Amino acid sequence: MMIGRSAVLRTTKQVAARRLQSTAGTPKMHKAKDCWQELEKTRAPKDHDDLHLVFHPPYNFAVTTSFVIGIAAAGWGLMAFGSAHQQYKQGYWK
Question: Where are the transmembrane segments (predicted)?
Fold first, then answer.
């Protein structure tokens, strides 16, 4: 069943007429860009830690290396255990 051309035009006009009667006001403007200098004045001065936003060394090489290897081994172990568990559960391994 096709909609007649006049029905489509009538519906389009009704939608457009409703939209024109909207009571919404004009969009609000973002004013922070105008106040940026004042905002910068209220902040503490930037030091070396603010320029590099990452964790700072010195790190103990042995501790970090063992931590990373431990996390990788734990992930591998969990996947191996999960796979073996499924194999036993489904009867492929006895």
Answer: 59-81
